[in-house]
Amino acid sequence: MENSANTNFDWFCVRTWTTSAKNTGWCLFGCAIGDFGTILFFQLTKIPFPVLAIMILAIINGLVTSIILETFILMKQNLDFSKAFKTAMGMSFISMISMEITMNLTDYFLTGGAILTWWVIPIMLLVGFLTPWPYNYWRLKKFEISCH
């Protein structure tokens, strides 16, 4: 027996793709600040630290900066801090984790990891955007839940 919720889902709504792209872009911006900032810090200071540890720290910092940015944006939309923080944590954490992991895997496979170059950054951003975008569309379409 087929589930009617699955058969009626519309993957072709331009308005939802546009809104989810905006939401995904904000998430990417927040994640990239912490992620790239961490990698750049270790790249410039040349502090001897294992590549895997730098990448894990970059992922954590990316998650933190994204949550901070999304909380700030929601507070600007007149949500109190507690509700804004809970919304930022609850609605986009899966997106942020998938975004961070794929961005760092892309960096690892293309450069050996924890190295920012002029040519790898756009690829990391593209992969980081495309990975969670369908999930964000699905969540927005199915539950009408959006972070922004």
Please give a handful of descriptors for the protein shown.
148 residues; mainly alpha; 78% helix; 0% strand
Give the SSE string: HHHHHH
Mean pLDDT value: 91
Q: Give the number of domains.
A: 1
Helix coverage percent: over 70%
Verbal overview:
The protein has helices at residues 4-7, 14-45, 51-76, 81-111, 120-130, 133-143. The chain has one domain (16-143). The longest helix has 32 residues, at 14-45. Helices cover 78% and strands 0% of the residues. Helix 2 (14-45) packs across helix 3, helix 2 (14-45) packs across helix 6 and helix 3 packs antiparallel against helix 4 (81-111). It is an all-alpha fold and 148 residues long.
Write a short abstract of this structure.
The chain has 148 residues and is mainly alpha-helical. It has one domain (16-143).
Topology diagram in text:
Layout: H1 4-7, H2 14-45, H3 51-76, H4 81-111, H5 120-130, H6 133-143
Helix pairs in contact: 2-3, 2-4, 2-6, 3-4, 4-5
